[in-house]
TrEMBL record:
Residues 23-277 form the EAL domain. The chain holds residues 548 to 824 of 831 of the full protein. This is EAL domain-containing protein.
């Protein structure tokens, strides 16, 4: 088999390995996933650490394929970027999430923030601005209730381009957040040149061995520095009461993780809200 750019295989040949065959099958399945209605947006609550009130939710895409089963986004998002499907998929997620958020604002009788993930490739797309504008218009969601999450690595890929785009996005009145903070090589001082509202502390900061507290101290320092820079902080991957206790000893603003709820389908999210948790 011939390796094409980016390590992807272009031709199907008998000597092709099992892994690349599976990959080709997944690529062609992904091309039809949208039109076949195989995608579903799940939502994970984000709660205020002090009051434990749900302040919003993150939209997380799920792909249910009749044969491949549940393909994790960490697998299909990079593939969608490679085959040029990410714009269409990203646009769909944004529309779904915005409409859902507006419906929930009405149903729950208060403003909730909807966070939507953007990949590096989407950031480079000329269609992004238009897509965000359309999602806001079609849903009627107030812009300050929409938040876009961009990973640190995506922002640092081309910082000058990112700065221009983020300024443009910010002019729509939406919120901007840096995702997976602490996994890349950027400094907060540098990131603060971007018009960001919040920072999501990567869950790796909470995953430590008992007795080894230094990543927690580091997390605390990041939270404090973020506040100095006027960024609110969301801790992600909060799983245990131990995590919760630690975070309560800091000035972290919001949390997300399995200790509150895993990402769930919209109907289940409503049940969660109506149970008053
Ligand atoms: P992310 O944005 O960092 O999302 C958080 C991931 O952590 C999600 O994985 C979520 O299900 C998982 N998670 C939530 N709570 C916990 C916890 O307590 N412990 C642990 N260990 N994990 C937790 P998921 O849903 O598999 O998504 C993986 C990544 O795929 C996301 O990471 C995001 O980068 C990307 N992704 C998901 N949906 C979309 C989308 O609609 N568009 C784009 N561009 N990327 C997406
Ligand atoms: Ca995210
Ligand atoms: Ca994250
Ligand atoms: Ca991530």
């Amino acid at each position: 088999a011939k390796a094409a750019g980016g390590g992807s295989f272009r031709f199907y040949t008998p000597d092709m390995g099992e892994a690349s065959r599976a990959r080709m099958a997944m690529q062609s399945a992904l091309r039809h996933a949208l039109e076949r209605g195989e995608f579903e947006v799940y939502y994970q609550p984000r709660v205020d650490l002090r009051t434990m009130e749900t302040t919003g939710m993150e939209a997380l895409l799920r792909w249910h394929h009749p044969v491949l089963g549940e393909v994790p986004p960490a697998q299909f998002i990079p593939l969608a970027e490679e085959i040029g499907m990410i714009d269409a998929i990203g646009h769909w997620v944004l529309q779904q999430a915005a409409v859902q958020a507006q419906a929930w604002c009405v149903r729950f009788g208060r403003a909730v923030k909807m966070s939507v993930n953007l990949s590096a490739r989407q950031l480079r797309s000329r269609r992004l601005m238009q897509s965000v504008r359309q999602a806001l218009q079609a849903s009627g969601l107030p812009p300050q209730q929409l938040e876009l999450e961009l990973t640190e690595t995506a922002l640092m890929d081309d910082p000058a381009m990112a700065a221009t785009l983020l300024t443009e996005l910010k002019s729509l009145g939406i919120r901007l957040s840096v995702d997976d903070f602490g996994t890349g090589y950027s400094s907060l001082a540098y990131l603060c040149r971007f018009p960001l509202d919040s920072l999501k502390l990567d869950r790796s900061f909470l995953q430590i061995h008992p007795g080894d507290v230094s990543p927690w101290r580091l997390a605390e320092a990041i939270i404090n520095l973020a506040h100095t820079l006027k960024l609110s902080v969301v801790a992600e991957g909060v799983e245990t009461t131990e995590h919760l206790h630690f975070l309560r000893s800091t000035s972290c603003d919001e949390i997300q993780g399995s200790c509150v709820s895993d990402p769930v389908p919209a109907a289940q999210f409503e049940a969660f809200m109506e149970a008053g948790i």
